[in-house]
Amino acid sequence: MPVNCTNLIRTRRISPRKKSKDRAQGVVEIRATRFLQKLTFGRVLTTANFCLLQTSPPIGAQRTLFLLIAMSKQIFEEDDLTSSEELQSWVATYCQLFGHEFFAQIPAEYIEDDFNLTGLAAIVPYYREALDMILDYDFDSEEETKPADKQSQLPLIEHSAELLYGLIHQRFILTKQGLGLMAAKFESGQFGKCPRVLCEQMPLLPMGRHDQPGKETVRLYCACCNDIYLPSSSKYLNIDGSFFGTSFPGMFLKVFPEVARMINNRTQNGQFELKCFGFKVNEVSASGSRMRWLRMRPQTEAEIAEYEQCEFGAPSEVDGSSKETMVSDDQSMS
Amino acid sequence: MPQEEEYTSDSGSDFTEYWIDWFLGTKGNEYFCDIDFEYITDRFNLTGLSTEVNRISAAIDIITDNAKIEGQPAEVKEQLEYNARFLYGLVHARYIITQRGLAKMLEKYRNGDFGYCPRVYCKLQPLLPVGLNDSPRLQPVKLYCPRCEDLYNPKSSRHAAIDGAFFGSSFPAMFFQAYPHLVPTHPTERYVPKVFGFQLHEYAKLARWQAVQRQKTEARLYELGVPVDNCPGGYVDPQEGEEEPVKSAQ
Ligand SMILES: [Zn+2]
Ligand SMILES: [Zn+2]
């Protein structure tokens, strides 16, 4: 396929806050460099040759050719490691890091839309710089003004970029597109499988118990046993739960009712019961069954009728009587 | 099987080591405890195992370091080693429900050698190994959490491949019969999926019904004179203020 020279240098939409001319120019150059890095040196030459033959004002094309060759030479003569690292966007690199397997890649368009970032500037320090980093905007121009300052702040900005990405992620995975990306990961079991034996390898969903960052690390929700688990690998111990948020599993269940079918096949498995030489442990003993209720589902007609009574609250007869008498009797006993 | 290779490659390397020490030190065998020599050498304890293990006397000799298998051809050696490990496993299931065996497993339980419950509300409750069958070669070992009273798969694939019969189906029940004071309390706290702070209706409904079932159990136990408030085997409610107030709606 012929590559158009003008397309090479074309950049994607630059958001309004990058209006300064120098800045735009910087972004254009960065994009062109990135594109060239993706091509092999040989391909650049053939592309350039092709442009030379195809474009109508030959001098313009020639100048482009020289520019291309000069740029690519410079790039390929540079340290191979640094150039290959720069091939990828910040987002792609971040999502491929060890332990970052749970993250979906947020498209740049979503991040560039200021509406999706409402309120985040107040939570994330170095917000502007962090956003620039996530979007791969170059901040050379600012570096000229205060280089030493910038250099010392870099680790802080990197940390802020991770925080910002996580908080955008929390919102993004609730959108149609985000849910779609997460569903693909769910289906391929990338969030792990439920450790509970009777859940039979049910795929899990990442979630947080808080929407504010810094409170707790990521937890995993199993729709089959309706419970939450710690990730099995310690590599997820530094992933903040708020980067997935409290609403994600609930939203997922609402949007993909087919998950319910996966659950129904598994809830027929019954429950585990502790046995001693084939006999059930007596309920009266301390190790007797006390947690059956947690995994119970209404089966018999009476149970289903009782379940229907729970529509808008616990049925009062059971709720009131047992608890209250127990408390009062307890006091009289002691 | 990769594990088989590892056993055989490790075994010849250290002549001075006891077989049991080598076995317990092999990666993947962390769930096993050290069986007393006297227990293994007492034929009474091995009653019925000769039908399960080929050449049981040779296997006993290997376990008790009474036989050198170095001179044997590789296949024979491997078979003998396999028999020895298999016998050790079956004897282990019997040993860990004896008084001494239970005490050794208690130490391992306290060390967290069997791992911790992955369920968030169980707050890192140590687990106990359990078999779903007492006959070998049927199902691998599972882990029992006494807090949520449920079964979990071991995290590591090495552990997940161990025969469940090497621990037996009665072990956790025997363990807590021997140490009733160690039965943990059961948290009543549970998870209900939420969207923007609102619980999903169907799930909230099921949770309410399940809470009714728990209250029934509490009431029944109370009738029987069994204490159920914050004591071994009793219930604990979530600490106040820990759980955010939940808006109940669609
Ligand atoms: Zn589950
Ligand atoms: Zn548990």
Topology at a glance:
The complex is a heterodimer of chains A (334) and B (250).
Chain A: H1 5-9, H2 21-38, H3 41-54, H4 58-77, H5 80-85, H6 90-96, H7 108-112, H8 127-134, H9 140-145, H10 147-172, H11 176-187, E1 205-207, E2 219-222, E3 227-229, H12 248-255, H13 258-267, E4 275-276, E5 279-280, H14 292-295, H15 301-309, H16 316-333
Antiparallel strand pairs in A: 1-2, 2-3, 4-5
Chain B: H1 2-11, H2 19-25, H3 37-41, H4 56-63, H5 74-95, H6 99-111, E1 128-130, E2 142-145, E3 150-152, H7 157-160, H8 171-178, E4 186-187, E5 194-195, E6 198-199, H9 201-223, E7 235-236
Parallel strand pairs in B: 4-7
Antiparallel strand pairs in B: 1-2, 2-3, 5-6
GO biological process, one term (chain A): regulation of ribosomal protein gene transcription by RNA polymerase II
GO molecular function, one term (chain A): protein serine/threonine kinase inhibitor activity
Subunit structure (chain A): Tetramer of two alpha and two beta subunits.
The span between the termini of chain B is: 52 Å
Strand order of the largest sheet of chain B: 1-2-3
Number of strands of chain B: 7
N to C succession of SSEs of chain B: HHHHHHEEEHHEEEHE
Q: Spell the H/E element sequence of chain A.
A: HHHHHHHHHHHEEEHHEEHHH
Largest sheet of chain B at a glance? 3 strands, antiparallel
SS strand fraction of chain A: under 5%
The helix content of chain A is: 40-55%
β-strand number of chain A: 5
The major pleated sheet of chain A works out as:
3 strands, antiparallel
Q: Overall 3D geometry of chain A?
A: elongated
| Total helical elements of chain B | 9
Please supply descriptive tags for the structure shown above:
heterodimer, A: 334 residues, mainly alpha, protein kinase ck2 holoenzyme, chain C, domain 1, N-terminal domain of TfIIb, 4 domains, three-stranded antiparallel sheet, two-stranded antiparallel sheet, 16 helices, 53% helix, disordered N terminus, B: 250 residues, 2 domains, two-stranded parallel sheet, 40% helix, 7% strand, disordered C terminus, binds zinc ion
